[in-house]
Amino acid sequence: EIMLTQSPATLSLSPGQRATLSCRASQTVGRNYLSWYQQKPGQAPSLLIYGASTRATGIPARFSGSVSGTDFTLTISSLQPEDFAVYFCHQDQDLLTFGGGTKVEIK
Amino acid sequence: QVQLQESGPGLVKPSETLSLTCTVSGDSMSSYYWSWIRQAPGKGLEWIGYIDNNGGTNYNPSLKSRVTITPDTSKNQFSLNLRSATAADTAVYYCVRWVTTVRNNWFAPWGQGTQVTVSA
Questions:
Q1: Residue of A nearest to B92 (CA)
Q2: Cβ <8 Å between B107 and A37
């Protein structure tokens, strides 16, 4: 089973700041098999990015994804008030597993 | 626009079967795969399993011995049965469309989720 480790667990930032979220896989995961989801309080998760770097329909350009080896990164270039939420990475190369999540909170 | 809605008991007794139904509107079930995902209180997401557009299934190995996902295409619904429920199965349960393409796969959209508590 491929484990995904997200860091940090919590990121405290101010609106306008840049957020960098990490997702490290326990073994190689092809970029086609990694996606990111956003979960706002009291809501279901929603798709942000698939294929490691392709934004889903309607997702603003301030959200971007990248990969280097087994390390996947979600970057929010300038945090907006609505971006404070929990973010999960997910892989479907081998079964389907999620990372533990990173909470982006207002500092 | 595709919408998914979970329904079922919010309270299940230990050792009984947790049963939920997902109603799909705005799309035919025959075109996609359909999945269940759960989230225990304050925890992350756990994939339970999915049913494909041919009725085939794939389950999380950690739950496989207790889980069944079945379709009812006449009603555009699919159901989850989780046998021998324990307190560890207390969670919000989401039904989700699993979109599979040649290059990528993703979960979208998600149902709003339904809270299920396992308690006597």
A1: A44
A2: yes
